[in-house]
Design goal:
Blueprint (H helix, E strand, L loop, with lengths): L6 H15 L14 E5 L5 H11 L6 E4 L19 H13 L6 E4 L5 H14 L6 E5 L5 H11 L4 E5 L15 H20 L10 H12 L24
Helix pairs in contact: 1-6, 1-7, 2-3, 4-5, 6-7
């Protein structure tokens, strides 16, 4: 079934957006309160711009930019393959945004998924002798729930805060990510919270019944491009999952 956008889809997608962005901090971080800013690589360079603004405001002395290429930046679904790893593209954007010196950035160029963003960055900071007890993670706004769930599973000794660039569901789409693709991403990230927790790739997150119902209705409407294999029969449903 071809996915089409209408008022029902907008309402359902708005519910997913509100859920996924709920963990985002709305007040500016206190200068000097965090050890690092971890920017999760993706196709959205606004994340790198926001990380640069956080650094420029004194949120942390160091930015860790993490990412090789994901499905989108590797050329999936007809998109152009990025010539360089996401971390390198992010670094270029961060420099252009706030003039960040190379000494204030660490580039992690091997991660191909969110779990690896954290495990590889954790190893990289440790190799540089950097103790991380409080940290900011920034990513696409709708990755708030998944970013923190992954952080607590793979870098649990640090206390994490999620920050993202401003704007809501209707503000996020642009020429690079139209509304239809955003809805596919929202559906996929909702599924990942459930599936990845069962696979023990991330910590369990309580998904309210109305959020899960919105997800199911959007899947039925054809928004399935960002779904992953759901063969998790050998894994128990996480206790944090609210079953409809």
């Amino acid at each position: 079934m071809a996915a089409t956008i209408d008022d029902e889809v907008h309402a359902l997608a708005q519910r997913l957006w509100d859920f996924h962005t709920a963990p985002a901090a709305h007040s500016p971080p206190t200068p000097g309160e965090h050890d690092i800013i971890l920017a999760l690589g993706s196709h959205d360079l606004r994340v790198a711009e926001h990380a640069a603004h956080l650094w420029d405001a004194g949120a942390a002395p160091l930015i860790v930019l993490s990412g090789q290429r994901g499905r989108r930046t590797a050329g999936a679904h007809g998109h152009d393959r990025w010539p360089r790893p996401e971390a390198e593209e992010f670094a270029q954007t961060a420099r252009a945004t706030a003039g960040i010196p190379s000494t204030a950035m660490l580039l992690e160029t091997h991660a191909t998924n969110t779990a690896e963003n954290f495990t590889h960055s954790r190893a990289l900071t440790a190799a540089h002798g950097i103790a991380v007890t409080r940290a900011i993670v920034t990513a696409k706004p709708y990755m708030g729930q998944r970013a923190l769930a992954t952080a607590t599973a793979h870098w649990p000794e640090a206390r994490w805060t999620f920050h993202c660039f401003a704007g809501g569901y209707t503000d996020y789409p642009n020429a690079d990510t139209p509304t239809e693709e955003l809805v596919h991403f929202l559906v996929g990230d909702t599924q990942r919270l459930d599936v990845y927790a069962r696979r023990r790739w991330s910590s369990p997150v309580d998904i309210p019944d109305d959020v899960w119902r919105a997800y199911e209705l959007l899947v039925a409407r054809g928004f399935t491009n960002h779904l992953v294999d759901n063969d998790t029969t050998s894994h128990p449903r996480p206790t944090g999952r609210s079953v409809p």
